[in-house]
Design goal:
Blueprint lengths: L11 H17 L8 H4 L5 H18 L5 H21 L21 E8 L7 H11 L3 E5 L3 H6 L9 E5 L7 E5 L3 E7 L8 E7 L5 E7 L13 H16 L4 E6 L7 H10 L26 E5 L3 E8 L10 E7 L14 H12 L17
Parallel strand pairs: 1-2, 7-8
Antiparallel strand pairs: 1-11, 2-4, 3-4, 5-6, 6-7, 8-9, 10-11
Helix pairs in contact: 1-3, 1-4, 3-4, 7-8, 7-9
Protein backbone atom coordinates (compact mmCIF):
# COMPACT_ATOMS: atom_id res chain seq x y z
CA UNK A 1 0.00 0.00 0.00
CA UNK A 2 1.63 3.27 -1.08
CA UNK A 3 2.46 5.76 1.67
CA UNK A 4 0.71 9.11 1.53
CA UNK A 5 3.15 11.96 1.91
CA UNK A 6 2.00 14.75 4.19
CA UNK A 7 2.21 18.30 2.94
CA UNK A 8 5.22 20.33 4.00
CA UNK A 9 4.66 22.25 7.23
CA UNK A 10 4.47 26.02 7.08
CA UNK A 11 7.89 27.35 8.07
CA UNK A 12 8.81 30.59 9.78
CA UNK A 13 10.57 31.70 6.60
CA UNK A 14 7.36 31.25 4.61
CA UNK A 15 5.39 33.25 7.17
CA UNK A 16 7.96 36.05 7.08
CA UNK A 17 7.98 36.12 3.28
CA UNK A 18 4.19 36.29 3.12
CA UNK A 19 4.09 39.05 5.74
CA UNK A 20 6.83 40.93 3.93
CA UNK A 21 4.98 40.57 0.63
CA UNK A 22 1.80 41.98 2.16
CA UNK A 23 3.71 44.98 3.53
CA UNK A 24 5.30 45.60 0.14
CA UNK A 25 1.87 45.55 -1.53
CA UNK A 26 0.49 47.92 1.11
CA UNK A 27 3.39 50.28 0.36
CA UNK A 28 2.68 50.29 -3.37
CA UNK A 29 -1.13 50.61 -3.24
CA UNK A 30 -1.01 54.43 -2.78
CA UNK A 31 0.77 54.69 -6.15
CA UNK A 32 -2.64 53.94 -7.69
CA UNK A 33 -4.02 57.48 -7.95
CA UNK A 34 -7.62 56.56 -7.25
CA UNK A 35 -9.82 58.49 -4.81
CA UNK A 36 -11.43 55.44 -3.23
CA UNK A 37 -10.52 55.21 0.45
CA UNK A 38 -8.90 51.77 0.06
CA UNK A 39 -6.12 53.34 -2.02
CA UNK A 40 -5.71 56.50 0.08
CA UNK A 41 -5.78 55.06 3.58
CA UNK A 42 -2.51 53.17 3.02
CA UNK A 43 -0.69 56.51 2.69
CA UNK A 44 -1.07 57.04 6.42
CA UNK A 45 1.02 54.32 8.17
CA UNK A 46 4.25 54.89 6.25
CA UNK A 47 6.58 54.80 9.26
CA UNK A 48 4.79 51.73 10.61
CA UNK A 49 5.24 49.91 7.30
CA UNK A 50 8.93 50.80 7.26
CA UNK A 51 9.55 49.52 10.80
CA UNK A 52 7.50 46.34 10.36
CA UNK A 53 9.19 45.47 7.07
CA UNK A 54 12.61 46.14 8.57
CA UNK A 55 11.84 43.75 11.45
CA UNK A 56 10.55 41.10 9.01
CA UNK A 57 13.67 41.36 6.85
CA UNK A 58 16.07 41.16 9.80
CA UNK A 59 14.25 38.16 11.26
CA UNK A 60 14.25 36.44 7.88
CA UNK A 61 18.01 36.91 7.44
CA UNK A 62 18.82 35.87 11.02
CA UNK A 63 16.48 32.87 11.28
CA UNK A 64 16.61 31.59 7.71
CA UNK A 65 19.02 33.44 5.45
CA UNK A 66 19.02 33.69 1.67
CA UNK A 67 19.46 30.13 0.45
CA UNK A 68 17.71 30.17 -2.91
CA UNK A 69 16.95 32.47 -5.82
CA UNK A 70 13.48 33.00 -4.36
CA UNK A 71 14.99 34.02 -1.03
CA UNK A 72 17.32 36.49 -2.73
CA UNK A 73 14.40 37.91 -4.70
CA UNK A 74 12.47 38.48 -1.48
CA UNK A 75 15.48 40.12 0.20
CA UNK A 76 16.00 42.34 -2.84
CA UNK A 77 12.35 43.42 -3.03
CA UNK A 78 12.16 44.08 0.70
CA UNK A 79 15.39 46.09 0.64
CA UNK A 80 14.21 48.15 -2.35
CA UNK A 81 10.87 48.80 -0.65
CA UNK A 82 12.60 49.89 2.54
CA UNK A 83 14.64 52.34 0.46
CA UNK A 84 11.46 53.66 -1.15
CA UNK A 85 9.73 54.15 2.21
CA UNK A 86 12.81 55.80 3.74
CA UNK A 87 13.00 58.16 0.78
CA UNK A 88 9.43 59.27 1.53
CA UNK A 89 10.03 59.61 5.27
CA UNK A 90 13.47 61.21 5.06
CA UNK A 91 12.26 64.85 4.64
CA UNK A 92 10.68 64.64 8.10
CA UNK A 93 13.78 63.38 9.89
CA UNK A 94 16.41 65.53 11.54
CA UNK A 95 18.85 64.43 8.82
CA UNK A 96 16.98 66.37 6.13
CA UNK A 97 17.21 70.03 5.25
CA UNK A 98 14.69 72.22 7.08
CA UNK A 99 12.09 73.94 4.93
CA UNK A 100 11.40 76.82 7.34
CA UNK A 101 14.52 78.43 8.75
CA UNK A 102 14.78 78.95 12.48
CA UNK A 103 15.31 82.35 14.03
CA UNK A 104 16.17 83.06 17.65
CA UNK A 105 15.61 86.79 17.47
CA UNK A 106 12.33 88.25 16.32
CA UNK A 107 10.50 91.49 16.96
CA UNK A 108 7.61 90.63 19.32
CA UNK A 109 5.25 92.81 17.30
CA UNK A 110 5.88 90.58 14.25
CA UNK A 111 5.54 87.20 15.99
CA UNK A 112 2.46 85.00 16.22
CA UNK A 113 1.78 82.04 18.53
CA UNK A 114 -0.80 79.53 17.30
CA UNK A 115 -2.36 76.52 19.01
CA UNK A 116 -4.52 74.04 17.09
CA UNK A 117 -6.42 71.07 18.46
CA UNK A 118 -9.01 68.57 17.31
CA UNK A 119 -10.72 68.22 20.69
CA UNK A 120 -12.74 65.05 19.81
CA UNK A 121 -16.34 66.11 20.13
CA UNK A 122 -17.23 63.47 22.73
CA UNK A 123 -14.25 64.32 24.95
CA UNK A 124 -15.46 65.92 28.18
CA UNK A 125 -12.12 67.07 29.59
CA UNK A 126 -12.39 70.71 28.61
CA UNK A 127 -10.48 71.58 31.78
CA UNK A 128 -7.34 69.93 30.40
CA UNK A 129 -7.58 71.90 27.16
CA UNK A 130 -8.12 75.20 28.98
CA UNK A 131 -5.12 74.45 31.21
CA UNK A 132 -2.95 74.02 28.11
CA UNK A 133 -4.19 77.31 26.67
CA UNK A 134 -3.25 79.05 29.92
CA UNK A 135 0.15 77.32 30.04
CA UNK A 136 1.21 78.03 26.44
CA UNK A 137 -0.52 81.42 26.11
CA UNK A 138 -1.03 81.38 22.31
CA UNK A 139 -2.25 84.39 20.35
CA UNK A 140 -4.73 82.25 18.41
CA UNK A 141 -6.54 79.08 19.44
CA UNK A 142 -8.16 76.95 16.74
CA UNK A 143 -10.40 74.10 17.93
CA UNK A 144 -11.96 71.49 15.66
CA UNK A 145 -14.75 68.94 16.29
CA UNK A 146 -16.53 71.43 18.51
CA UNK A 147 -20.26 71.28 19.22
CA UNK A 148 -22.42 73.55 21.36
CA UNK A 149 -21.14 71.87 24.53
CA UNK A 150 -17.55 72.76 23.63
CA UNK A 151 -18.57 76.30 22.72
CA UNK A 152 -20.10 76.71 26.18
CA UNK A 153 -17.13 75.14 27.95
CA UNK A 154 -14.59 77.39 26.20
CA UNK A 155 -16.63 80.59 26.54
CA UNK A 156 -14.24 81.72 29.30
CA UNK A 157 -11.56 82.17 26.63
CA UNK A 158 -13.42 85.18 25.25
CA UNK A 159 -12.09 87.29 28.15
CA UNK A 160 -8.53 86.97 26.86
CA UNK A 161 -9.41 86.31 23.23
CA UNK A 162 -12.04 88.93 22.33
CA UNK A 163 -11.84 88.36 18.56
CA UNK A 164 -13.72 85.15 17.79
CA UNK A 165 -15.31 83.21 14.98
CA UNK A 166 -17.41 80.41 16.45
CA UNK A 167 -19.02 77.71 14.30
CA UNK A 168 -20.24 75.00 16.70
CA UNK A 169 -21.81 72.04 14.90
CA UNK A 170 -23.16 68.69 16.06
CA UNK A 171 -21.69 66.71 13.13
CA UNK A 172 -18.08 66.60 14.48
CA UNK A 173 -17.04 69.36 12.05
CA UNK A 174 -17.64 72.40 14.22
CA UNK A 175 -14.82 74.92 14.49
CA UNK A 176 -13.98 77.59 17.07
CA UNK A 177 -11.38 80.29 16.50
CA UNK A 178 -10.30 82.49 19.41
CA UNK A 179 -7.83 85.33 18.86
CA UNK A 180 -6.34 88.07 21.00
CA UNK A 181 -5.16 89.68 17.76
CA UNK A 182 -7.66 91.62 15.71
CA UNK A 183 -9.49 89.69 13.00
CA UNK A 184 -10.71 91.35 9.83
CA UNK A 185 -12.74 90.22 6.81
CA UNK A 186 -13.67 87.02 8.63
CA UNK A 187 -15.75 84.57 6.59
CA UNK A 188 -17.09 81.09 7.18
CA UNK A 189 -17.15 79.20 3.90
CA UNK A 190 -18.44 75.79 2.87
CA UNK A 191 -16.12 75.29 -0.07
CA UNK A 192 -17.04 71.73 -1.03
CA UNK A 193 -19.47 70.03 1.33
CA UNK A 194 -22.51 71.33 3.13
CA UNK A 195 -21.87 71.22 6.87
CA UNK A 196 -18.06 71.21 6.49
CA UNK A 197 -16.90 74.78 7.24
CA UNK A 198 -13.61 76.56 6.84
CA UNK A 199 -12.70 79.88 8.41
CA UNK A 200 -10.96 82.57 6.37
CA UNK A 201 -9.71 85.70 8.14
CA UNK A 202 -7.06 88.38 8.14
CA UNK A 203 -5.09 88.53 11.39
CA UNK A 204 -3.45 91.80 12.34
CA UNK A 205 -0.07 91.38 14.00
CA UNK A 206 0.74 93.79 16.85
CA UNK A 207 2.79 95.68 14.25
CA UNK A 208 -0.43 96.30 12.29
CA UNK A 209 0.69 94.07 9.39
CA UNK A 210 -1.99 91.62 8.15
CA UNK A 211 -1.71 87.86 7.73
CA UNK A 212 -4.18 85.72 5.78
CA UNK A 213 -5.35 82.76 7.86
CA UNK A 214 -7.18 79.69 6.51
CA UNK A 215 -8.59 77.15 8.99
CA UNK A 216 -9.63 73.73 7.63
CA UNK A 217 -11.07 70.39 8.72
CA UNK A 218 -12.16 68.37 5.65
CA UNK A 219 -13.61 64.86 5.83
CA UNK A 220 -11.21 61.89 5.90
CA UNK A 221 -11.32 59.08 3.30
CA UNK A 222 -12.62 56.33 5.59
CA UNK A 223 -15.82 54.30 5.09
CA UNK A 224 -17.74 55.71 8.08
CA UNK A 225 -17.02 59.30 7.00
CA UNK A 226 -16.49 59.49 3.24
CA UNK A 227 -15.70 56.52 0.98
CA UNK A 228 -13.39 58.62 -1.17
CA UNK A 229 -10.84 61.40 -0.83
CA UNK A 230 -12.36 63.57 -3.59
CA UNK A 231 -13.97 66.11 -1.27
CA UNK A 232 -10.97 66.33 1.05
CA UNK A 233 -8.50 66.76 -1.81
CA UNK A 234 -10.70 69.33 -3.51
CA UNK A 235 -11.00 71.52 -0.41
CA UNK A 236 -7.29 71.34 0.40
CA UNK A 237 -6.27 72.24 -3.15
CA UNK A 238 -8.87 75.03 -3.44
CA UNK A 239 -7.35 76.63 -0.35
CA UNK A 240 -3.92 76.07 -1.86
CA UNK A 241 -4.90 78.21 -4.84
CA UNK A 242 -6.36 80.88 -2.57
CA UNK A 243 -3.13 80.92 -0.58
CA UNK A 244 -1.07 81.30 -3.75
CA UNK A 245 -3.20 84.26 -4.87
CA UNK A 246 -2.95 86.04 -1.52
CA UNK A 247 -1.00 89.33 -1.68
CA UNK A 248 -0.15 89.08 2.04
CA UNK A 249 1.61 86.40 4.14
CA UNK A 250 -0.40 83.21 4.64
CA UNK A 251 -0.90 80.59 7.34
CA UNK A 252 -3.02 77.46 6.76
CA UNK A 253 -3.88 75.46 9.86
CA UNK A 254 -6.10 72.63 10.98
CA UNK A 255 -6.80 68.92 10.96
CA UNK A 256 -6.49 68.19 7.24
CA UNK A 257 -7.19 64.47 7.69
CA UNK A 258 -4.16 63.82 5.52
CA UNK A 259 -0.58 62.91 6.37
CA UNK A 260 2.32 65.25 5.75
CA UNK A 261 3.91 63.00 3.11
CA UNK A 262 0.84 62.23 1.00
CA UNK A 263 0.48 62.95 -2.70
CA UNK A 264 -2.30 65.46 -1.99
CA UNK A 265 -0.28 67.35 0.62
CA UNK A 266 2.64 67.50 -1.79
CA UNK A 267 0.35 68.93 -4.46
CA UNK A 268 -1.04 71.40 -1.92
CA UNK A 269 2.41 72.69 -1.03
CA UNK A 270 3.40 73.09 -4.66
CA UNK A 271 0.09 74.75 -5.51
CA UNK A 272 0.16 77.17 -2.57
CA UNK A 273 3.90 77.75 -2.35
CA UNK A 274 3.61 77.21 1.41
CA UNK A 275 6.28 75.64 3.61
CA UNK A 276 6.05 72.88 6.22
CA UNK A 277 7.87 73.75 9.48
CA UNK A 278 8.09 70.04 10.37
CA UNK A 279 10.40 69.22 7.47
CA UNK A 280 13.85 68.51 8.78
CA UNK A 281 12.58 68.46 12.37
CA UNK A 282 10.33 65.43 12.86
CA UNK A 283 6.95 63.85 12.25
CA UNK A 284 5.04 65.56 15.10
CA UNK A 285 2.44 62.79 15.00
CA UNK A 286 -0.83 64.11 16.44
CA UNK A 287 -3.22 61.19 15.86
CA UNK A 288 -3.93 58.71 17.45
CA UNK A 289 -3.17 59.99 20.96
CA UNK A 290 -4.52 56.80 22.60
CA UNK A 291 -2.50 54.27 20.56
CA UNK A 292 1.26 54.99 20.43
CA UNK A 293 1.84 52.40 17.68
CA UNK A 294 -0.74 53.96 15.37
CA UNK A 295 0.20 57.63 15.03
CA UNK A 296 0.30 59.92 12.01
CA UNK A 297 0.82 63.68 11.44
CA UNK A 298 -2.74 64.77 10.66
CA UNK A 299 -2.79 68.26 12.21
CA UNK A 300 -0.89 70.83 10.19
CA UNK A 301 0.36 74.39 10.11
CA UNK A 302 1.76 75.59 6.78
CA UNK A 303 3.14 79.07 6.23
CA UNK A 304 4.33 81.20 3.34
CA UNK A 305 8.01 81.97 2.84
CA UNK A 306 7.49 85.23 4.78
CA UNK A 307 7.88 83.39 8.10
CA UNK A 308 10.68 81.86 10.12
CA UNK A 309 10.28 79.45 12.99
CA UNK A 310 10.77 80.29 16.64
CA UNK A 311 9.32 77.12 18.14
CA UNK A 312 7.19 74.09 17.24
CA UNK A 313 5.90 71.47 19.63
CA UNK A 314 3.41 68.66 19.92
CA UNK A 315 1.62 69.56 23.12
CA UNK A 316 0.65 67.19 25.97
CA UNK A 317 -2.59 65.19 25.65
CA UNK A 318 -5.90 66.85 26.53
CA UNK A 319 -8.29 63.90 26.54
CA UNK A 320 -8.81 63.95 22.77
CA UNK A 321 -7.74 61.33 20.24
CA UNK A 322 -5.54 64.11 18.81
CA UNK A 323 -2.59 65.83 20.45
CA UNK A 324 -2.72 69.63 20.22
CA UNK A 325 0.01 71.44 18.25
CA UNK A 326 1.77 74.69 19.13
CA UNK A 327 3.81 76.82 16.77
CA UNK A 328 5.52 80.18 17.18
CA UNK A 329 6.28 81.97 13.91
CA UNK A 330 8.03 85.24 13.15
CA UNK A 331 7.13 87.39 10.16
CA UNK A 332 10.31 88.48 8.39
CA UNK A 333 10.08 90.49 5.11
CA UNK A 334 13.56 89.24 4.18
CA UNK A 335 12.67 85.56 4.61
CA UNK A 336 11.32 85.04 1.04
CA UNK A 337 14.84 85.74 -0.24
CA UNK A 338 16.27 83.03 2.02
CA UNK A 339 13.73 80.21 1.66
CA UNK A 340 12.78 78.21 -1.41
CA UNK A 341 9.12 78.14 -2.41
CA UNK A 342 7.70 74.80 -3.67
CA UNK A 343 6.67 74.99 -7.32
CA UNK A 344 4.29 72.73 -9.25
CA UNK A 345 5.15 71.32 -12.65
CA UNK A 346 2.81 71.73 -15.62
CA UNK A 347 1.61 68.14 -15.15
CA UNK A 348 0.96 68.71 -11.44
CA UNK A 349 -1.00 71.88 -12.18
CA UNK A 350 -3.17 69.86 -14.56
CA UNK A 351 -3.81 67.23 -11.87
CA UNK A 352 -4.75 69.97 -9.40
CA UNK A 353 -7.28 71.49 -11.80
CA UNK A 354 -8.79 68.06 -12.47
CA UNK A 355 -9.16 67.38 -8.75
CA UNK A 356 -10.74 70.76 -8.12
CA UNK A 357 -13.15 70.23 -11.03
CA UNK A 358 -14.10 66.72 -9.84
CA UNK A 359 -17.81 66.19 -9.37
CA UNK A 360 -18.98 65.91 -5.77
CA UNK A 361 -22.72 66.35 -6.30
CA UNK A 362 -23.54 62.65 -6.52
CA UNK A 363 -22.06 61.77 -3.14
CA UNK A 364 -24.62 60.49 -0.64
CA UNK A 365 -25.10 62.48 2.54
CA UNK A 366 -22.29 61.80 4.99
CA UNK A 367 -23.57 59.91 8.03
CA UNK A 368 -23.17 61.49 11.43
CA UNK A 369 -20.30 59.94 13.35
CA UNK A 370 -20.96 57.49 16.15
CA UNK A 371 -19.27 58.33 19.49
CA UNK A 372 -17.36 55.06 19.28
CA UNK A 373 -15.72 56.11 16.03
CA UNK A 374 -12.59 58.20 15.94
Amino acid sequence: MPMVQSSSPVTISTVLQVLGGVLIVFSLIPLIRHDNWIFRVFEYPRAQKFLLLLVVLVLFLVLHGARSAWDWAFVGLATANLGYLFYQLFPYTSLAKVQVLRTRQAAPERAIRLMICNVYQYNRRADRLLALVQRYDPDLVLLAETDRWWASQTRSLEAGYPHCELVPLENTYGMLLYSRLELRDTEVKYLVEEGIPSIHAKVLLPSGEPIQLFCLHPTPPVPQENPRSTERDKEILMVGKLAKASPIPVIVAGDLNDVAWSYTTDLFQKTSGLLDPRRGRGFFNTFHAWYPWLRFPLDHVFCSTDFKLLHIERMPPCGSDHFPMFIHLAYDPQAPHQQEEPIATVEEKTVVEEKIAADTDEQPARPERNPAQT
